[in-house]
Amino acid sequence: MQRFVTLPAIHILTGLALLLGLLSPAIGLAQSKRLPGLELAPGDTTTPVFPLIRIYKSPSANSPLVGQASPGQIFVVKQKTDVSAGFDGIQQFWYEVAFGKKLDQTGFVFGPGLACGFVQTPDGTQFVLHVIESLDEGLKQVDIKVVTSDGPLLTFSKQMPITADDSLVVRRRDSLDFHGYTDLVVFDFLSTGCPDRHREMGVLWNGDRALQMPVLAGPEGSKSPCFRYQYVLPDEPDGEPGMLKIRVQKTATQQEWVKFRLIQDFGFVEIRN
User: Fold this and answer.
1) pTM for this model (two decimals)
2) Which distant-in-sequence residues (6+ apart) come within 8 Å of 270 by Cβ?
3) Which residue of 59, 65, 147, 157 could cross-link 94, Cys pair, CB 3.0 to 4.6 Å?
4) pLDDT, greater one: 211 or 272
């Protein structure tokens, strides 16, 4: 019998349709292989994860908008332009795309905006991310569905502050040795309006068991769009044996650590000093 460990507050959802799209290559976690940025070719079709994607008249965020894609919008790549910009340490390009109900409209989208939330571990297990509207003002619902060769198994869900300006980076790390878990998939939301802002949502996997990584909320009462956090595993710089640490950057100069221990068959428990 397969077993799955979740945090007590996680709701398991069923029947969520599999998000269509292309595999989104991305960078690796610390001490793992660094992969190239998103690369799309003419004729490629993708359905991005974000509810609203801004489409520009020319390959520049300063050019006029020609539209905003609705959830589930299909894009067909017409060409990769020569215009690029650095994004999360990787050079990313602007793409000319066709969109609309009849794919008869054209515009330009920055590469990370076209990323779909899909990654596959070496054993063939798929992790599919979907961002949908939430009833809570200022938040979006983020779902991660775990799909094996036998079909969908479960979905992790979390409310997170994600905006139309955010982009997605997918990180995967294999051959872990963390309390019996061997793989880690992290979906990282980065903001173009706030450099170096990271909001990560991750899942640990060991072939038959999935565990959601802790997801932090912003400081109580804080409206800062630059609140960010990143996972640090035991064998990474600043890591501690047997412990998951989260580096929290509250402001440009204020940083703190949140520490968790993994309790078997229960989940992550925060360790308070």
Assistant:
1) 0.62
2) 214, 258, 259, 260
3) 59
4) 211
Bridge partners (DSSP) of residue 188 are 169, 200
Tokens of 232: 């640090």
In the prediction, which pLDDT does 226 show? Answer: 65
What CA–CA distance (Å, rounded) separates 211 from 230?
Answer: 17
Which two tokens mark 165? Answer: 């300006």
Phi, psi of 123 (to 5 degrees): -85, 5
**Where does residue 210 rank: exposed (0-12), middle (13-18), buried (19+ CB within 10 A)?**
buried
Q: Evaluate if residue 87 carries a pLDDT over 50.
A: yes
Instruction: Give the model's confidence band at 244: pLDDT under 50 very low, under 70 low, under 90 confident, else very high.
Output: very high
Q: What is the SS3 string spanning the chain? A: CCCCCCCCCCCCCCCCCCCCCCCCCCCCCCCCCCCCCCCCCCCCEECCCCCCEEEECCCCCCCCEEEEECCCCCEEEEEEEEEEEEECCEEEEEEEEEECCCCCEEEEEEHHHHCCCEEECCCCCEEEEEEEECCCCCCEEEEEEEEECCEEEEEEEEEECCCCCEEEEEEEECCCCECCECEEEEEEEEECCCCCCEEEEEEEECCCCEEECCCCCCCCCCCCCCCEEEEECCCCCCCECCEEEEEEECCCCCEEEEEEEEECCCEEEEECC
Measure the CA–CA gap between 39 and 49, rounded to whole angstroms. Answer: 16
Among 201, 230, 189, which Cα is nearest to 48's? 189
Q: Is 70 exceeded by the pLDDT of residue 150?
A: yes
Yes or no: say if 70 and 132 are a contact pair by the CB < 8 Å rule.
no
> What pLDDT is recorded for position 255?
81
Neighbours of 123 (CB within 10 A): 14
